[in-house]
Design goal:
There is one protein chain. It is elongated, with a radius of gyration of 30 Å. About 8% of the residues have low confidence. Strands 1, 2, 3, 4, 5, 6, 7, 8 and 9 form a nine-stranded mixed beta sheet that branches. The chain is of the alpha+beta class. It has three domains: 185 residues, Histidine kinase-like ATPase, C-terminal domain (Heat Shock Protein 90, 2-Layer Sandwich), CATH 3.30.565.10; 123 residues, Ribosomal Protein S5, domain 2 (2-Layer Sandwich); 188 residues, Ribosomal Protein S8, Chain: A, domain 1, CATH 3.30.1370. α15 packs across α19. Magnesium ion binds next to α2.
């Protein structure tokens, strides 16, 4: 007897579910897309336990009659496509007729629907593929679908679900994509009975961007419009100063559908070339509209990738319009007023307040001005015979430098060095010379120091005089919650401070050169990216790496002799000093014999 048999239908559906339904957020995506295809202008999403317990999506679309409701959950049944030739003109979000059947094969489903011209609604219940008959019931017009206990009969898949917070982050991300693209929709998102977002219809892009992300983001976008070569582009492109450490704030939509596309991402990166450091990502919301004949959506199970028939045209148009906008806009960064903790809190009149601020600014610059440049000779005579305190020498690192024994300092002082282009230090050594990349070396030093401290205990932190507040999105606030232990270890204390706002109360003293709010923003980007990896050790390394990079002296920064000396001294005390944490060299050596060879002296 042959071994091959046809699979039963429920097994087929479960396999299909593996492709489209990965986690609760996929259910939300499919159901919301169905509601949009049904012409709804009001959709509510009610979630419990990150969608692991239940998801209820309710819309006011055109609904289903008894027969349609019965058919909707059959595999490969759709009202959006009649034959293969329709595949070339798909204007709906769905067309594969797989989602409902797949979902119903891996969860408990209850669907209630009523069309506008019927008095009667209908209800259908399915438990992992086992259907009860369709029954009449009372209902509002539109459709409501409730999904409970996703994957409850599939312990392996169930085990792969993450914490409620993480799953909720994925759902929120789906919600954001829908909200940005379908701005005519009235949308609500509720989690564990708490309303996370309520967006009214037609409140405009900026209002949504500010509600979903922050005011700072909404206020720093450049609007771009272009309509050329059968391609219409509308973009909200972030000014360089709101760039991020990952590309999570790059949203690309094609005819309303959120997509990922390598060509377009590349075009965005190219457009910002020269405006951003290579490891930064611009914030951008890009809406492309083009005739449906010019691309194919049927290339990926969740339709997140598409195939453009003329990808080069899309690339060059996107690159061109963004680049042109950036070049024609004055992108000078406004002068940053010192952080609030450096400004005395005033209660007087506006004039007094402004005087106080001016004073605070002057004070700030006095404090942060590079120490008076001394030449080496002065330095040595001044301190001749009396020991130099390490803290004094290490002015640019505050209390945090290692003490350099006097004997060693003497040898250091006998070395000759010079800073060139405010970025490199050329120093004479016993047998030649070294060129030091000041940023890379300092980064390594700080990284090792942070690592050795955090391995033994938590970082020592300092209370901020006046807590600095910052805005966060829903997703980010959950990330902070989830990583409370890490924050504690780092010595960072943040507390909720009004809606969507946190205040930093304490910050590690070793990072005193870093603006807490800047650091937290980059850190949360990193946490978001690391979420799926969930390897706490690697995450900690990445955070320390970020901290070291931000706290390190920069290329282009003029250093005093003392600072240079401290750097060269620290180099001797640090492990792996020859490479920065990213593996790039920190020091290049030339021996005398090499020099002699180059000059053909030997
Ligand atoms: P697809 O969206 O690819 O057609 P689905 O399995 O998602 O496949 O849905 C099957 C069919 O069920 C749809 O084609 C549509 O006719 C009907 N349907 C699903 N959800 C809704 C809804 N919210 N309102 C009205 N009809 C719906
Ligand atoms: Mg669908």
């Amino acid at each position: 007897m042959g071994k091959i048999e046809s699979l039963d239908q429920n097994t087929v559906n479960m396999i299909a579910a593996g492709e489209v339904i990965e986690r609760p957020a996929s259910v939300v995506k499919e159901l919301v897309e169905n509601s949009i295809d049904a012409g709804a202008d009001r959709i509510s999403i009610v979630v419990e336990d990150g969608g692991r317990k239940s998801i209820i999506i309710t819309d006011n679309g055109f609904g289903m009659d008894r027969d349609d409701l019965a058919a909707a959950f059959e595999p490969h049944s759709t009202s959006k496509l009649k034959n293969a030739s329709d595949l070339r003109h798909i204007s709906t979000l769905g067309f594969r007729g797989e989602a409902l059947a797949s979902i119903a094969s891996v969860a408990q489903v209850k669907a209630v629907s009523r069309t506008k011209d019927s008095q009667q609604g209908y209800c259908l219940e399915i438990d992992c593929g086992r259907r009860a008959p369709v029954k009449p019931c009372s209902a509002d017009f539109g459709t409501s679908i409730e999904i409970r206990n996703l994957f409850y009969k599939m312990p392996v898949r169930r085990k792969f679900l993450k914490t409620a917070n993480t799953e909720m982050n994925h759902i929120t991300e789906q919600f954001i994509r829908t909200a940005l693209s379908y701005r005519h929709l009235n949308l609500t998102l509720i989690h564990n009975k708490r309303e996370l977002h309520h967006l009214s219809a037609d409140d405009g892009f900026y209002k949504r961007a500010s509600e979903l992300f922050s005011n700072q983001i909404a206020e720093n976008l450049l609007e771009i419009q272009s309509d050329e070569k059968r391609l219409s582009i509308c973009a909200y492109s972030g000014r360089p100063e709101i760039s991020r450490a990952n590309n999570k704030l790059q949203y690309i939509f094609l005819n309303g559908r959120f997509i990922r596309d390598k060509f377009i991402s590349h075009a965005i990166k190219e457009a910002y070339r020269g405006h951003l450091e290579p490891n930064r990502f611009p914030v951008i919301f890009l809406f492309i509209t083009m005739p449906i004949e010019d691309f194919d959506v049927n290339v990926h199970p969740t339709k997140i990738e598409v195939r453009f028939f003329n990808a080069n045209l899309v690339h060059s148009q996107v690159l061109g319009v963004i680049r042109e906008k950036l070049l024609s806009t004055n992108l000078d960064t406004p002068v940053k007023v010192p952080a609030p903790s450096q400004i005395p809190k005033g209660s007087g009149t506006a004039a007094e307040r402004s005087r106080e601020i001016t004073e605070a600014i002057n004070e700030f610059f006095k404090k942060h001005k590079p120490a008076h440049a001394q030449n080496r000779f002065d330095f040595r005579t001044k301190h001749m015979g009396k020991p130099v305190r390490a803290e004094e020498v290490a002015s640019f690192e505050g209390r945090d430098s290692i003490h350099v024994p006097d004997a060693e300092r003497e040898t250091l002082l006998n070395k000759r060095y010079i800073q060139i282009h405010d970025s490199f230090i050329v120093a004479q050594t016993d047998d030649g010379l070294i060129i030091v990349d000041q940023h890379a070396l300092h980064e390594r030093i700080l990284y090792e120091r942070l690592r050795s401290r955090i391995n033994t205990s938590r970082l020592e932190s300092q209370k901020l005089l006046i807590p600095e507040s910052f805005e966060v999105s829903e997703v980010h606030s959950r990330l902070f919650e989830d990583n409370a232990e890490l924050m504690e270890k780092l010595g960072i204390e943040i507390v909720p401070f009004g809606p969507k706002t946190y205040a930093v109360q304490a910050f590690p003293s070793i990072l005193s050169r870093v603006k807490p709010v800047d650091f937290l923003q980059d850190m949360v980007d990193l946490l978001q990216q690391a979420e799926s990896k969930a390897d706490p050790k690697q995450l900690l390394e990445e955070v320390l790496d970020l901290a070291a990079c931000k706290a390190a002296i920069k290329a282009g920064q003029k250093l005093t002799d003392r600072e240079i000396e401290q750097l060269l001294a620290d180099k001797e005390h640090v492990e792996r000093a020859s490479r920065c944490p990213h593996g790039r060299p920190t020091v290049i050596k030339f021996t005398l014999s090499e020099l002699e060879k180059q000059f053909k002296r030997t």
